[in-house]
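During the second half of the funding period, the structural biology subgroup turned its attention to how the target accommodates small molecules. The most pressing case was NAP, which had performed well in the primary screen but for which no bound structure existed. We therefore specified the complex as follows and requested a full 3D prediction, including the ligand pose.
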Amino acid sequence: MSTETTQIPQVQKVWRVVGSGLPAKALKLEEIPVPSDLQPGEVLVKIQAAALNPVGYKLMKMLPNWLAKRPHVAENDFAGVVVDANGTAFANGDEVFGWIPTDLQQKTSQGCLAQYARVPVDYFVKKPNNITPTEAAGITLTAATAYKGLVEIAQIEEGQSVFINGGSSSVGIFAIQIAKSKGCKVVASCSSKNTDFVKSLGADEVLDYKASPLSQQLTTNPPTPKFHVIFDCIGLTSPELYTKSAPYLAPNGIFVTVGFNVSSLKQVPGILRTAVNAFLIPAWLGGVKPKWKVFVVTNRKERLDDIRKLVQDGTVKPVVDSTYEFEDALKAFDKLMSERAVGKVVVNVV
Ligand SMILES: NC(=O)c1ccc[n+]([C@@H]2O[C@H](COP(=O)([O-])OP(=O)(O)OC[C@H]3O[C@@H](n4cnc5c(N)ncnc54)[C@H](OP(=O)(O)O)[C@@H]3O)[C@@H](O)[C@H]2O)c1
């Protein structure tokens, strides 16, 4: 047993999801045992920082306890230090970043708003030296989403033209940088206050989504050639972006979305319209020709390795919106739930 292992305390502070509702109701700051039951292939990580993601509070609000397998520690993204390498290829003292995605969180009751977590080695990578733990904490979930949407599903290629809906969102920030790193032309949407920021990420053109509906803007001023890919990083708040895309999305192109942002029942008709156009009406009867694909990100070790390389060589830079102390995690959730953060909302754990 290493010296560091002997210094591991028996109890730790965690924010645990103990019920359903908004974070102020669903979360409790508790003391629970530090995991001591490491399985082969797992390490014990001392967490330095945890980043918040919308999926955390959405599941708190939407799922009953039995379905969400509560209680479990909150949140999915971390940066930390390996303190018990448990015979794996990692060493005590390695600085790492990674995640405990929802499926693993529900299976093991582990999460990242904690001082310690046991994590399988396929779920994290070594932190490059050019970023801080606070920056590293916010990479995995959203960078993996952007990578999966653009590289694995849309299979973007050099010279293609890509529209990123939501360029200042955490997913969009990584998506713009990844698309540029592959040699694509990028047009992105954001509100006017974020135009300079989104351009600084590499976007070639920026549209203000608040000025008028994006489908109208793109129809009035269509790109030449048409987009190969539209990547919706927000959650299809405007279904017309797909259903009216004929003037600006190539017929053999693809519309990829992170899902439906079902914050209000008013969105249900739009969601149904999208589904009907995507799946029920054939193109020859007026349905939309380009493919439509929704996905949920899951773990893939090779993807994490690729993302690490992009960060290490400076091609992709994480962006932090704000940082909070551990005891102030509820304030961090308020910031995230404002839906106005530009980059990751991070809770420092040490
Ligand atoms: N399917 C998956 O596996 C997966 C994975 C990760 C995330 N998601 C989903 O993806 C969405 C984004 O997550 P995130 O973490 O990137 O969110 P986030 O960082 O909290 O997004 C906040 C940003 O979105 C911008 N924004 C809000 N509404 C917009 C709109 N209608 N058009 C353009 N920009 C808008 C805001 O800018 P302004 O202030 O300028 O509006 C703000 O900068 C969430 O719905 C999340 O649940 C899905």
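Two results from this model are relevant to the next phase. The radius of gyration is 21 Å. Residues 1-5 have pLDDT under 50 and may be disordered.
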